[in-house]
Amino acid sequence: MIDFNYSVALICCLLAYGLFKKLQRRRAFPLPPGPPGEPLIGHLRVYPRTHDTYLKWHKLYGDIVHLSVLGQPIIVLNTDQAANELLQKRGKIYSERPYMPMHDMIGWGEMLTFLNTGDSFNKARKLLQDPFTQPKCIMFQEMQLSLTHLLLKSMLTNPTEFNAHLKRFTTAVVVEIAYGHRILSDDDKHAEIIEAVEHVLEIGGDLGTSPVDLLPILRHLPSWLPGAWFIQYAKEANIVATALINNPFDEVLSKLANGTAPDCFTTSALETMKNDNQETDEDMRRLKNAAAALHSAGSDTTWGTLKTFVLLMVLYPYKQRKVQDELDTVLGGDRLPNFSDRGIRFILVKVIQRLASGGILLSPSAYHIGIPRMTYIVDFTYQRTQQSSQVHGVSQWMKLFTENLRTSPQNVSYRTPKVAMNPVQTQSSDTVGGDSSIHSSRRRN
C-alpha cells in the first residue's frame, strides 16, 4: 500500500510539474521543429535514445531539433555547422551549464566542468591555467620522458596488452602531475580510483538525462521506492567521488607534513595559497576539485587520443612506414626523440595534433556525448527566440555522420593530415599539441 501511494503521488507530481511548465511556456516564441510530444510529459518516453533516433530526426526536422521533457526545452544540434554557429560564434550566451542535481548528489557540483560563469568559475579556471603555461610545463618534461620509456618497455615486453599499457601511461602522467605520485602497476590505488570513476560514469548514462535532472524534486525519494534506482546510484557514486577528491589530496598533505612531498600541481598551489594568505576552507575545497578534475578527466582524453593513433597506424601501414622512416632519418636510428627535437615538424607530431584537436574523424568512439549547455537567450540561424531557460545537447555522433559530411555515414573514411614528407625546421608552437601547456580559457566541451 505504501509503495502504491508513493507511486500515485509521484505520477501526480510529474503531471502537475509538466502542466505548470507547459503553461509557463505558452507565451514564448516558436522553437525549432521537432517530433510531436505527448501531453504534459512531452518527449519523456523517447529521450534519451540512441544516435540512430537523432539521425532520423535530423532528416525529418533539420540541423536543430527541439524536444521538451516535462516542460523543459532541450535543443539538439545535429551538425558541426549548427554547433559552431551557436556554441563557438555566439558562445558568450551559450557558455552556462544547466543545473544538474545528480552531480550535487554525487559530489561533483563544484568541479570546474560543471560550474557556471562567475567568481567561482574564474577562480577555479585560474587555478588550473596558471601552472600549465608553456614555460612552467618544462618541469614535467623529465617525468614525461621517464614514463614514456617505461611505456615503450612494456610495449616490447607484452605488445598484445598495448591498450592496458596506454591506459596506465596516461593515468600515470596525470596523477604524477597532479599529486606527485608515480603509478607503476595496474593495482595502484590511484589507478583503481580512476577505474571506479569511469565505471560510475559508464553506468550513469548521458550527463543531464537522469530522472532527477529532469525533475529535481525526485532527489527526495527514498532509495527503496520502485523505480528510484538513481537514488541508490547517487549514494554509491558519492563514495567514489569522495575518494577521488579527498584521498590523493590528503596523501599530499601527509607528505608535506613529514617533508617528503614532491613538486606537483597540488604542492605548488598550496604554496601559492599560503603565500597569498588564501587558505580558507573554500580555497582548499576549490583546489581539491581542481586536482581531481586533472586526475579524472586528463587521463581519459589522452588515452583516447593514443588509442586512435594506434588504430590509424594499423589501418594505414604505409603511413606508419613513412612516419617511421622520417624518425629514423632524423634521429639516426640509434636514439629516441626527446623534447630537444620539438623544433622539427615531424609528420608524427602533426598526426597527434590533428587527433588531439578532433581534426581526424573516427567512428568507434563517436557517440551522443558532451556536457549540456544552458542559455537564457536563444538565437538560431533561421529564427530568434527568447526563453527563460534552454538546455543544449550536442550530438557528437550526428556531427560526424550527417550525410553532408560523408556520402556513406556508416563507412567513414579515416583522414590523415596531408603534409610534406620532409621535416621542416620551425620555432613555432602555436597549434594544439605544440607545447605541453593546458589551455582552458575557452569552453569547448
From TrEMBL:
Domain of life: Eukaryota
Alphabetically ordered keywords of this record: Heme, Iron, Membrane, Metal-binding, Monooxygenase, Oxidoreductase, Transmembrane, Transmembrane helix
Pathway annotation: Secondary metabolite biosynthesis
Membrane-topology annotation of the record: Single-pass membrane protein
Entry annotated with the keyword Phosphoprotein: no
Region of interest: Disordered: 423-445
InterPro entries: Cyt_P450, Cyt_P450_E_grp-I, Cyt_P450_sf, Cytochrome_P450_fung
Compartment(s) where it occurs, according to its Swiss-Prot or TrEMBL record: Membrane
Cofactor needs: heme
Family: Belongs to the cytochrome P450 family.
Record protein name field: Cytochrome P450
